[in-house]
Each structure stands twice: as structure tokens, then as C-alpha cells.
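Whiteboard transcription, Tuesday session. T.W. wrote the C-alpha cells on the left side:
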């Protein structure tokens, strides 16, 4: 299997001949955010057999990026996403996307790969929609490897039981602004999650890509440092876990030990 990080929470996981894409975001600017590091993902990044959307926040569910998917692509979203986001419905119809809505604990299949939705500790509403209308999710992709894509989440007591055994974890280690609120993992909390989950390999994501316009000088270490700090913290808390800290557009083939 192979993992490619395109920036932010956008990752391609190729496993058992199935190409899975997470939270596609293919723009240079999103509202007050601009892409400060890494080139825009190339057209091939939008090629996928299955696309996973973790929650409704605009940097994770981005209709204009979903519009770049090939007609007929299968799209997995949290249950209720279509009702909450009219633009998602419009894109799905225009691009003939095959939309599957899941709750935590539910599964779907794509070829030789099974995807199971798992709970996330994150406020998944898309303002101005109603409070917490659609819970945020993570996903476990089970093919040759068991790969956990956390989406956006904080630490929660049942994390290990919710995810189960995993070989590779894609963990958010930062954000897109100078401060992280509740329901997020910073570098230290992400390392704690890695220690609990005990995967063979972990790839840090959701950092060092987007930043608010005009705030370049406000706590700049929160933009630049999370990946390195996460690697350091994992070395202290879970030295048996291999950290693959990728550059934008880079790929890795993690060793899967069963």
C-alpha cells in the first residue's frame, strides 16, 4: 500500500488496487485562508475510486474540489451531509457522484477494500446550519493494511476501542490558525493518540499548508513546527511507531507487519 500527502487533510491511500482519497481540498485560497506551503495538488490527485469526507467544515467538505472528481466516483460522507449542504447535492448530481452516507459503526465496500466509519470528537456542524446536525467521522480503510484516517478529532477515552487495531494512522497534528480549540489534536495530543493506537506507522497531516491571510507573524511556530514536534513527541511516547513526515505531494510505502 502507498500513502501520498497532498497537503492539509487531503491524502491518497492506495491499497489492494483501490485508490482512496480523503477530504479533497484543491484550491489556493479558501475564504480567509491561503495556501502558504506546497504546490497545488496536480490533476492526478483527484483520481480516486472512493472519496472519504470526514465532516462538514469547509476545509474538509469543499464542493468545488469535489467537482473535480470523475463522473461516477463514489463519495462517502457522514449521514445527513446531503441534507445539510445543498452545494454537495448539486455537485453530486452534476458530476453523477455515487454518494453513500454512513454513521459511526457502519461500513461500505469498494473492490477489495472495506471502509468503516468511526466516531470523532469534533464539532462537525457547518455554520450556519443547526448545531451538531451531522457528527464528524473518522474512517478505517481495511485492505492489505488497516489505515485509520482521523479527519479532525480530539482525544477521547474510547479512541482505541473505536478504531481497533490499525497498521497506519493518518493523524492531524495542527490546524490552520494560531490557536487550536477543543476537538483538535496538537502535536503532543496526536503523539498520545499514536501511543494509544500503536500503529506500525503514522503520517502527520492537517498542518503546514493553509494559514489566515495577514496572520503570518502571529504565532508562526503553530504553522511551521507541528510536524517536527509530533515526530519528537512520538519518539518519547511511542518509539516503536515509525513516523513518516512527508513533504507536500510526497509518497511513502509503510511497512505492514502482521
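and on the right, the sequence the group agreed on:
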Amino acid at each position: 500500500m502507498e500513502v501520498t500527502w497532498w497537503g492539509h487533510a487531503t491524502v491518497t491511500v492506495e491499497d489492494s488496487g483501490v485508490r482512496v482519497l480523503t477530504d479533497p481540498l484543491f484550491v489556493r485560497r479558501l475564504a480567509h485562508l491561503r495556501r502558504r506551503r506546497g504546490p497545488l495538488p496536480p490533476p492526478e490527485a483527484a483520481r480516486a475510486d472512493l472519496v472519504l469526507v470526514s465532516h462538514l467544515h469547509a476545509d474538509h467538505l469543499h464542493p468545488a474540489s469535489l467537482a473535480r472528481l470523475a463522473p461516477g466516483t463514489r463519495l462517502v460522507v457522514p449521514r445527513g451531509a446531503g441534507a445539510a449542504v445543498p452545494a454537495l447535492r448539486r455537485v453530486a448530481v452534476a458530476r453523477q457522484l455515487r454518494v453513500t452516507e454512513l454513521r459511526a459503526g457502519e461500513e461500505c465496500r469498494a473492490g477489495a477494500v472495506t471502509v468503516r466509519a468511526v466516531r470523532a470528537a469534533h464539532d462537525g456542524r457547518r455554520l450556519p446550519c443547526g448545531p451538531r446536525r451531522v457528527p464528524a467521522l473518522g474512517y478505517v480503510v481495511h485492505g492489505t493494511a488497516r489505515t485509520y484516517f482521523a479527519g479532525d478529532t480530539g482525544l477521547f477515552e474510547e479512541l482505541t476501542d473505536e478504531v481497533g487495531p490499525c497498521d497506519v494512522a493518518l493523524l492531524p497534528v495542527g490546524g490552520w490558525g494560531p490557536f487550536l480549540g477543543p476537538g483538535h489534536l496538537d502535536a503532543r495530543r496526536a503523539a498520545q493518540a499514536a501511543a494509544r493506537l500503536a500503529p506500525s506507522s503514522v503520517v502527520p497531516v492537517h498542518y503546514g499548508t493553509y494559514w489566515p491571510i495577514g496572520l503570518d507573524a502571529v504565532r508562526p511556530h503553530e504553522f511551521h513546527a507541528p510536524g517536527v514536534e509530533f515526530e519528537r513527541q512520538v519518539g518519547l511516547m511511542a518509539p516503536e511507531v515509525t513516523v513518516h513526515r512527508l513533504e507536500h505531494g510526497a509518497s511513502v510505502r509503510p511497512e505492514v507487519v502482521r
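Someone added at the bottom: The chain has a mean pLDDT of 95.
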